[in-house]
Amino acid sequence: MTESSAHHLRAGGISLVLDCEGDRLPRVLHWGPDLGELGAEDLAHLRLAAAQGPRAAGPDRPVPLALLAEQSAGWMGTPGLTGHRAGADFSTAFTVTGIRRNASTEAAVAETLTITAADRDAALELGLEVQMLVSGLVRMRAAVTNTGPGIFDLHSLDLNLPVPLEADEILDLTGWWGHERIQQRHAFTHGTHLRESRRARELDAAVVMAAGRHGFSWRSGELRAMHVGWSGNTRTYAERMNHAVGMLAGGELLLAGEIRLGASETYQGPWIYYSHGDGLDESAARVHDYLRARPQHPRTARPVQLNVWEAVYFDHDLATLKRLADIAASLGVERYVLDDGWFGSRRDDSSGLGDWVVSPDVWPDGLGPIIDHVHDLGMEFGLWFEPEMVNPDSDLARAHPEWILAARPDRWPPEARHQQVLNLTIPEAYAHVRDQMLAILRTYRIEYLKWDFNRDLIEAGTQSTGQASIHEQTLAAYRLMDELIAAQPGLEIESCSSGGGRIDLGILDRCVRIWASDVTDPLERQRIEAGTSLLLPPEMIGSHVASPISHQTGRTTTIDFRAGTAFFSHMGIEWDLTGASEDELARLGEWIAAHQEHRDLLHTGTVVHGDHPDDAFWLHGVVAKDHREAIYAFASVHSSRHTTPGQVRLPGLEPDRRYRVTQLLTDTAGRARRGSSTAWWDDGLTLTGRALGAVGLQMPNVSPEQQVVLHVTTT
Ligand code: GLA
Question: What is the CA(449)–ligand 1 centre distance, in A?
Fold first, then answer.
């Protein structure tokens, strides 16, 4: 095997070896732990090791699975590219026309392999980019060009990486409003486990699909995982055929007729991310490290923010909003976000969406009085928009009903939250919303946008053509964000979609934060944020301290549990502080100060989770990259069958270092109940990372819906 007939990409402890011999699309000889330096003979023998002989009732000369699966190469499962040209060219047979390998100038990218291929009979060209990212994450994307004269009707363009037979269990995510990122597991058997997202939102999407050895956990068990970095419709699937070959595959989900390529037109698919790990923490850390290495990743301290939504909802009253700002500033809050209700006729959710003009009814002197007040208090100001949406009861929808995304002019999609989607693929509609937003951004000093997106895109077509438009709509939304950021340098955008409905790496190319869920109950948040951490690092996850009685669940929790939960993420408050007691405010101030003191560690360290055997308890934390410090939370999420939690292991520490373990902010309520004892939590203890990881330490007997936070420092 010559050097150019195989490519070995290596970074972050991961190898991807691609067999490029001959002119068929590249095949994966290995994706997983780093194989070290490989010579020509090693590569040739790896290829030999992977070669299958003839199999029962199969092709006489089997061709290994390529990055884009093709029937013409003997793949009997889902083909990578489907489509047709007036009923013909239903199956492709690409031959490689060029391979280029480049070191990267981007800090996050180690190497790029660019492969071009053509199917001259079908008159298609394929462009594949395969990148090894510095963190060991692999990402790939594909583009297809119609080189023929007529229309090529593209149905799907999926890429895959193979997974070994050892991977016999699949973990993916699902959920619903307020219950985002529920983890579910299935056996990985023969057949296809397909998760489609057909509403351009991710409340119930796979988001992350992992395949590994049965029982793989946070800390152990080899697994491979993938994510489609796209905010429109997606396909994510695990497929295994009866000849023992399996894969994780996916791409954009295209609706019928959505991509009809004319002569020389190209469809560009989204980046698909692939991670490998010994345990979910390691796989997630590769994604976090990649995100943190990108130039647009937020590098300034994440400002503690107050969002007024749960404090006032649509009831905008300047005096109350100023009082909230005063209290927030006195607690150390650094950013104030005015949520829904400031514009048009938007006094509730039934009207006004789409009219991005300050309401003279509620803001007779404009937003200046609140914005100036917030700035005078030393805080940044943020403002809520939902730019892609419109209430039918709005000036905009009345003036331009043809700007609503709909399959037909006379059949709009069923309303959801009394709203429809504005068709941003219509240049005039796009320009209208952009200019209204820019007018606000140029009139006022606004540092931050909360960008909401509160309904599913269903039957989302362009009325004049009847063509499905989710692909183009998604690109237009990206373009709008990019334009606003370019026009207002330094502007930060938060991605919200009925809570955590839009958290993919496509939107996060331009957003610095996601609102993980509308549910601010800390008990629910413990689980939601754990699932979200499979993709996102804590500094991108918005987490707010809400009122003692949760507005969503009715559950009552202590200030320590609420604040100690938000403490780990991009911390904020969403609570009518004018009704809070002096004690609650004082304690909240202490948590904010603690967050500000430790956020550098929390927002740059490695996220870890415990595999504690009693599921009544939940341990997670962040360990500094240099292993000199860590912070853990140990929470009780429901009643245990044991009278004590037992000894709990602290993961991620350096074995030979000695660490001092203390409580970060003593859980005063819990302490009174537990009484004093000889246990370590009164005065702390000192042990090696090895002992803390292998033996663990007895935890205070926290009751359900309480937690202790541990601070671990090098002695
Ligand atoms: C959505 C968001 C909330 C809030 C409301 C405002 O539900 O998820 O955080 O902004 O919209 O209408």
Answer: 13
DSSP state, 25? P
Q: For the segment 59-82, what is each residue's pLDDT rounded down to a tens digit?
A: 888 788 999 999 999 899 999 999
Calpha distance 312→315 (Å, rounded) = 5
Kindly state the helix (H) or strand (E) to which residue 631 belongs, with its residue range. Answer: strand 629-636
CB-based contacts of 585-588 (< 8 A; 24+ apart in sequence) = 585/327, 585/331, 587/559, 587/560, 587/563, 588/331, 588/545, 588/559, 588/563
Q: Which residues pair with 159 in a beta bridge?
A: 250
Structure tokens at 242: 């009866």
Identity at 135, one-letter amino acid code: S
Separation between Cα atoms, residue 298 and residue 540, nearest integer Å: 9
- Crossing angle, helix 522-532 and helix 559-566, to 10 degrees? 20
Q: Does the reported pTM lie above 0.85?
A: yes
Which stretch of DSSP H or E encloses residue 531?
A: helix 522-532
- Rounded CA separation 521/151 (Å): 52
Q: List the chain domain ranges.
A: 70-293, 305-597, 607-714
CATH no. for 305-597: 3.20.20.70
User: What's the token pair of residue 517?
Assistant: 């869920």
Ligand 1: atom nearest CA of 339 is: 10
- Ligand 1 near 343 CB (within 6 A): no
CATH class, range 70-293: mainly beta
Q: How far is the CA of 498 from the centre of ligand 1 (A)?
A: 6
Query: Which residue's CA is minimally distant from atom 11 of ligand 1?
Result: 498
pLDDT in tens, 141-195: 999 999 999 999 999 999 999 999 999 999 999 999 999 999 999 999 999 999 9
Q: Which CATH number fits domain 607-714: 3.40.50.1240, 2.60.40.1180, 1.25.40.20, 3.40.190.10?
A: 2.60.40.1180
Radius of gyration over every alpha carbon of the chain, rounded to an integer in angstroms: 27
Query: What's the Cα-to-Cα distance from 617 to each of 184, 198, 469, 499, 641, rounded to whole Å?
Result: 19, 36, 46, 26, 11
DSSP state of 64: P
Please report how the helices 427-443 and 470-487 are oriented relative to each other, as an axis angle in degrees rounded to 10.
30
